[in-house]
Amino acid sequence: EVQLVESGGGLVQPGGSLRLSCLASGFTFSSYEMNWVRQVPGKGLEWISYIDTSVNIIKYADSLKGRITISRDNAKNSLYLQMNSLRAEDTAVYYCARDGRILHGAFDIWGQGTMVTVSS
Amino acid sequence: DIQMTQSPSSLSASVGDRVTITCRASQSISIYLSWYQQKPGKAPKLLIFATSSLQSGVPSRFSGSGSGTDFTLTISSLQPEDFATYYCQQTYSIPFTFGPGTKVDNK
After folding, report:
1. Do B31 and A104 touch (CB under 8 A)?
2. How far apart are CA A36 and CA B96, in angstroms?
3. Most distant CA atoms of chain A, gap in Å
4. In sequence order, what DSSP letters do the residues of B60-105 get, joined into one string?
């Protein structure tokens, strides 16, 4: 079964850090570009980061640039999101999503999401 | 950045109704437009990619159309499992922006 499973979310104090992970299975992870998307509870979807297959191209949303780092380990079928200097407004569900390659960039596989709560 | 808008923000419909949701981009995005369905507590699910291509496994009552800046998602005959929030997304250029969503609920 093709799937993505996120982990690493939780409660963190303002100013703290978290590293989210996304484990891929059921497909050749190294062949797919990947993204992170977040959703504040009760709000819409926000794209936050992209990484290509060979880590040559990395992009971030301006709202988070300088505070997040996306990375991947193709040998471990894993995608990561390092988040620093966290703020209350970063409280959200964080999803990893696969770029569908021939699908004109559509995100065809999503993880179940991991909740990040930033609060003292 | 390309801004995406959707209308309406919400709508009430009954099973069997034809439902149409509109998405507009702030500049031309060719056909790089996708539609997602999201139910409470669940991840988004891809319905339509490249404006009008149906994702594998998605019922044929869903269809998409448009090009350039104006796009439409149509549900030809609303089913009970279709009550959800629908998002459009452009993948023409980074940042890959989403529309604000349209919530479809039961009249």
Report:
1. yes
2. 11
3. 44
4. TTEEEEEETTEEEEEESS--GGG-EEEEEEE-SSSS-PBP--EEEE
Query: 């009249």: which residue's tokens?
Result: B107
A17-65 pLDDT per residue, tens: 999 999 999 999 999 999 999 999 999 999 999 999 999 999 999 999 8
A59 touches chain B (CB under 8 A): yes
Which of A37, A47, A109, A114 to mutate to probe the B interface, most B CBs <10 Å?
A47
Cα-flanking dihedrals φ and ψ of residue A27, to 5°? Answer: -155, 170
The number of angstroms, rounded, from the C-alpha of A83 to the middle of its chain's C-alpha atoms is 10
The reply to whether residue B89 touches residue A106, judged by beta carbons under 8 angstroms, is yes
Residue whose token pair is 């808008």: B5
Q: Tell me how close the Cα of A20 comes to any Cα of chain B, in angstroms.
A: 17
Across the interface, of A44, A104, A111, the residue whose CB is closest to B87 is: A44
CA distance A47 to chain B (A): 6
Q: Give φ, ψ of B56 to 5 degrees.
A: -55, 130
| Residues B5-23: tens digit of each pLDDT | 999 999 999 999 999 999 9
Tell me how close the Cα of A103 comes to any Cα of chain B, in angstroms: 6
